[in-house]
Amino acid sequence: MSLAATELSEVYFDDDLAHYRLAGYDAHDERTEDDFAFFCSNSDVLHPLVTHHTPDGRQSFFVLADHAATYHPRPGTASLIVLHVTRDIAAKTFQIVDDRLPLLSFAQRWLIDRGCPVEAVRMSADHPFTKPADALTVKLEECLLTSPSQRYEVLDHYTDDHMVFTATTLVCDHDPSSRHQPFRIFHEITSLESHTHTLREGAWADLDAASQWLIDRDGPLPTPRTRIPQAGTAPPATAARASISRRPSGQSPPFPGHRR
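Predicted structure:
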């Protein structure tokens, strides 16, 4: 049973309902109500990086930076939250789907896979997020953003903001050109002094070797054999959902250390 609109307005601030364009809407079910409570109760630490509303009012897409992710009980929690809001205009109800991802390009890709236009996920030149530090970072981010939806399967990730601000993502690259080195690590380092970030990619033939590098961090990332496509040459993105999986609970990920 959905929560009555009058009760919804009593639970949440008008600004929160207006921001997500949910004033006058009921939560579709109790789970939706519980999930949405997180976004309203943490509105002071969730900074919008990407916001898009469809012209028909049925969908909204967000990428939010969680400034309180450091204090999450799970070490290594990603600081970017993606949110997809769908509305039943006739019934005046809404549902949400959300996730946490470590890199902005993966967050943007998540929105695209759910129907958000590619151009709508791109941030303006004056956005508050850090800027790419070099041309290679720009090329890698463009490759991730414009890749077909099923290409990169996220296996695990770890964000460290203790001493050096880094985000490390382990993926399986399903593109045929990467069949000899399908396991990739995308490693991002952020410089707070220059307000820039540097992204690099490493490639391995098997998962154990990639995991061992994560444990040892001995030497630079192995350079992939596959060529980075130029912007605009990647196949068009589809509306299919990305295949995103996490390690089974109880199995130790290859990301040692603690976030704080």
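Summary: The mean pLDDT is 81.
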